[in-house]
Design goal:
The protein has helices at residues 16-25, 47-62, 74-87, 96-106, 118-123, 125-133, 147-152, 159-169, 191-198, 207-221, 243-254; strands spanning 6-10, 31-35, 68-71, 92-94, 111-116, 138-143, 179-183, 203-206, 236-239, 259-262. The protein has 265 residues and is of the alpha/beta class. The structure holds ligand I24 and D-glutamic acid.
């Protein structure tokens, strides 16, 4: 047993979709979350900046005595997961390899689609990981720069949102893709519209949810689970922007009351 919390980092609030999966799949575990909303979004930034900023978040989490780190951001995982993983002596889980592996397991027709921010798609990391595990599988990548701003302006079910999602996904339709990876933390919020655009024949893969399955396997294998005797988990959330706004968004999404503090990194 290891009763220390699991550290989560993200460019902002999107990583809360991954935390929601942790609370659903592993309700006994305790979360320390840091979101860098003051410097978000990371998607359009340079790889060098993303590397520096993500390391700031890692150093912060290490001061909180975490037993494991989840990089709950596709963009940060694409750029620095391997570097962080190599340098720390606690497990570091990213969202990309679990998503790539789940997509291969689901895929039937040999062609997988991936959507994400410009940096995630430009890095071509999903293709690299998918083809590492399954060299014959074809990968079709598409950057959807309008999706995250849509969610952040609270447009997740409006007609405008439906139209933007449909228009953006046109290159993906009728290409023979039967599995589509949601390669950005914000996209699970657009899931109904994305499903409607690509049709029921396409299975959607939520990378965040898949990464929590890997967290579960690691906790079991290394016997790092938190004990129920510790009582209810006391999750702690930190943001580099407004604690008040973060708290509103997070409580609305997670449906629980939480503590939020502002930090300057
Ligand atoms: N959703 C997200 N980001 C926002 C937002 C949102 N505002 C409304 N909703 N703002 O991401 C980002 C910029 N802020 C962040 C905080 O600091 C200041 C700058 C998606 C959230 C994923 C959990 C809409 C909204 C909401 C609650 C839940 C879901 C949702 F308010 F889409
Ligand atoms: N969290 C980011 C991701 O999953 C999306 C938001 C951003 O660009 O910072 O790629």
């Amino acid at each position: 047993m290891d009763n220390r919390p699991i550290g989560f980092l993200d460019s902002g609030v999107g990583g809360l979709t991954v935390v929601k999966e942790l609370i659903r799949q592993l309700p006994q575990e305790e979360v320390v979350y840091i979101g860098d909303s003051a410097r978000a979004p990371y998607g359009p930034r340079s790889a060098e900046q993303i590397r520096d900023f993500t390391w700031d978040l890692v150093r912060f989490l290490l001061t909180k005595d975490v037993k494991m780190i989840v990089i709950a951001c596709n963009t940060a995982t694409a750029v620095v997961w391997e570097d962080i993983k190599a340098k720390l002596d606690i497990p570091v889980i990213g969202v990309i390899l679990p998503g790539a592996s789940a997509a291969i397991q689901t895929n039937q027709g040999g062609k997988i689609g991936v959507i994400g921010t410009p940096m995630t798609i430009q890095s071509d990391i999903y293709r690299e990981k998918i083809q590492l595990l399954s060299p014959q599988t074809e990968v079709m990548s598409l950057s959807c720069p309008r999706f995250a701003p849509l969610v952040e302006s609270n447009e997740i079910s409006s007609n405008l949102a439906r139209q933007v999602v449909y228009e953006s996904l046109i290159p993906m339709i009728d290409q023979g893709v039967d599995t589509l990876v949601l390669g950005c933390t914000h996209y699970p919020l657009l899931r109904p519209l994305i499903q409607e655009a690509v049709g029921d024949g396409v299975s959607l893969i939520d990378s965040g949810a898949e990464c929590i399955r890997d967290v579960s396997v690691l906790l079991n294998y290394f016997q790092l689970n938190r004990s129920w005797q510790e009582g209810e988990p006391n999750h702690r959330f930190y943001t580099t922007a407004s604690a008040k706004i973060f708290k509103e968004i997070a409580e609305n999404w997670l449906k629980i009351e939480i503590n939020v503090e502002h930090v300057d990194l």
